[in-house]
Q: What sequence folds into this?
């Protein structure tokens, strides 16, 4: 039996890609998209948002950003606001990615501010949570993830929480070729859902989508996406590959 939640496959291009790749990827994805009941989002670097918006205009693929500034305008050199994302028809935005937490001091409090700004501008946040290897080995993975989740969504009304998507990305599985086992991932997703039932409502807990991210590829996607609590994937490296990303979309189409 299919899940009630519509699968979502999001590609995070990080600081990679080109308009040429966007066109090639679209061509590779197209046959699968037509009969698919999966939602597909690509999050390219800021510099490609405008041209990719044009490239994807007549398609079912939506556009996401990888970051946003919590303020709407002002003296913030190098930053991009939610109002600017609106102008480029960006519908989604990743927040709290572990690379931004580690390299750009993105704290839970900043994640929460960004989530609020995005929701005010009608952009759906993809809120990333995940533990490091050290934290997992110390048995702290669940508490670390629950804390990130609580802080990232704190004080939001239930209907705003419902507009968020959570991405569980264990840091040790990102770009390493080492995925969490489907059991490890599903078990963390269940923990997240249980926490949401406490933090928010049963409805939020059962309807919110929780994606898995970390070394997802065309070969391992089906087993992950089959799990009861995994509603899609946040894909890094394999979202840049025309022979991988379409296979991930197909794997979620069950
Ligand atoms: P990889 O798929 O390259 O491991 O990256 C995952 C990720 O960080 C997506 O946001």
A:
């Amino acid at each position: 039996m299919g899940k009630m939640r519509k699968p979502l496959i999001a590609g995070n291009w990080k600081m990679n890609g080109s308009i040429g790749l966007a066109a090639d990827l679209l061509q590779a994805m197209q046959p699968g998209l037509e009969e698919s009941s999966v939602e597909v989002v690509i999050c390219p670097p800021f510099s490609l948002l405008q041209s990719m918006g044009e490239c994807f205009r007549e398609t079912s693929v939506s556009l996401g950003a990888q970051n946003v500034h919590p303020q709407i305008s002002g003296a913030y050199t190098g930053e991009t606001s939610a109002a600017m994302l609106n102008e480029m028809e960006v519908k989604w935005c990743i927040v709290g990615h572990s690379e931004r937490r580690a390299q750009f001091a993105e704290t839970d409090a900043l994640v929460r501010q960004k989530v609020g700004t995005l929701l005010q501008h009608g952009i759906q946040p993809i809120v990333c949570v995940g533990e490091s290897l050290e934290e997992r080995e110390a048995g702290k993975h669940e508490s670390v993830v629950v804390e990130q989740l609580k802080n990232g969504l704190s004080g939001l009304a239930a209907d705003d929480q419902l507009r968020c998507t959570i991405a569980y990305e264990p840091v040790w599985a990102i770009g390493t070729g080492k995925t969490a086992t489907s059991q490890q991932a599903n078990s963390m997703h269940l923990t997240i859902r249980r926490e949401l039932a406490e933090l928010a409502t049963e409805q939020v807990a059962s309807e919110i989508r929780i994606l898995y991210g970390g070394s997802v590829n065309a070969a391992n996607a089906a087993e992950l996406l089959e799990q009861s609590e995994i509603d899609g994937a946040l894909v890094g490296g394999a979202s840049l590959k025309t022979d991988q990303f379409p296979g991930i979309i197909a794997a979620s189409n069950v």
Summary: Residues 207 and 218 are 26 Å apart (CA to CA). Residues 8-252 form a domain with the TIM Barrel fold (CATH 3.20.20.70). The chain has one domain: 8-252. The two ends are 9 Å apart (CA to CA).
